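Morning F.,

Quick status update on the modeling queue. The single chain you submitted on Monday has been processed. Sequence for confirmation:
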Amino acid sequence: MDTQDKKAVLIVAMLSAFLMPFSATALNVALPQMGSDLEADSVLLGWIVTAFMLSAAMFLVPIGRIADMRGRRRIFKIGAWIVAVTSLLIALASSPWVVVALRALQGFGGAMILGNGSALLTSVYPAQERGRVLGLSIGTVYFGQSVGPFFGGFLTQHFGWRSIFVVITFLAIATAVITSWKLKSDTDVGSDEAFDFAGSALYGLTIFALIYGLSVLPAPHGFAYLAASAAGLVAFVHRQNNVLNPIMQVSLFRDNPVFALSNLAALLNYGATFGVGFLLSLYLQFVKGLSPQDTGLILLSQPLVMALSSPLAGRFSDRVEPRMLASAGMALTCLGLLVLASLDAESSLGMVVAILLVQGLGFGLFSSPNTNAVMGAVERKHYGVASGIMSTTRVMGQMISMSICMLIIANFMGRVQLAPEHAAQLIQTQRVAFLIFAVMCFGGIVASMARGKIH
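Structure tokens below.
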């Protein structure tokens, strides 16, 4: 592929990499206003975030397989249109349950985007350039996370939360149009292979049972769902080992320790960090009394450092051992979580910003090298599935993080519409959550170091 075509792929991948995290972080700041406007309690607010990620997690791997078979460009473009249409409908919705349902459909479209960005880049750039372009793409992810809280707060304060979804609509339309205009037709597709529909259904139900079970603990039916998820996982692995055209090559985990441990490190890292923005958004508005716009400015600090450090870390990972960079990054993140657990009503905003800066550097050092390790550990024909698995571990980690937050909120606070009088309970809730996240992050350091050398 010539240089012009490769640049077009990079532009499209970076635009889509900006879209999804911008949506998520802008929405975090808008949640209190959404709760008031839609009359949604704290648990239902959590589901507005969770519905998207649950749906995406259920479909990422099957869609990655379809993209390998039918063409990554085609699937990518369809996903962008689905995100555009659902965003417009959410902007017009008046019921919290309708918003949750549309967010689930949006997650299906999001899976088509999330599961193909890294695969598109890896398929057109050689190994010696892979860390650099993946670093640029991941840097764009964090740039989206950086401007999301600020613009989300600005839009929410001046135009209402619905304006965020209007902006997302236009960004998704731009992504779809540029993909059609700039990217050539798909090549290297295995269209003659059969698709494992039964395996895909089993996979999706297993993921659903896991996430829903986590979200309703400690209720007895929560444990029943977790047991069903464990049984579904066993059945899924058995089927993938015996079906002619599996949606997931189980051997990627069994025979490839770099791939398996890199994904485990990512799962633990995202599980330990994603809920931080959600909890701090509530802390800054309900405990510290900040406006949505000022909250967005505070939360801007972490992803801004991520956006600056990720491209450099990606470039270094082409020459320096990725596990060393990634492990050092996770150690910084773990330290930040431990300090976050000490926050109370008297903590200064300067302290919050300083912690977020440290965490941003840690996450930036981790993500690009880890992604380079994952995509460099598989053959070309598995790029779509590998990208889907990697995105699934990210979304699953985010889901686990949100499930932990929702579980702790439900047990410490109950189903209440949050208000400043709940400040003491909210501080206790976030303290427990941050300590749990720190333990998870330490486990990620162990997994990262155990994967062995890559270069």
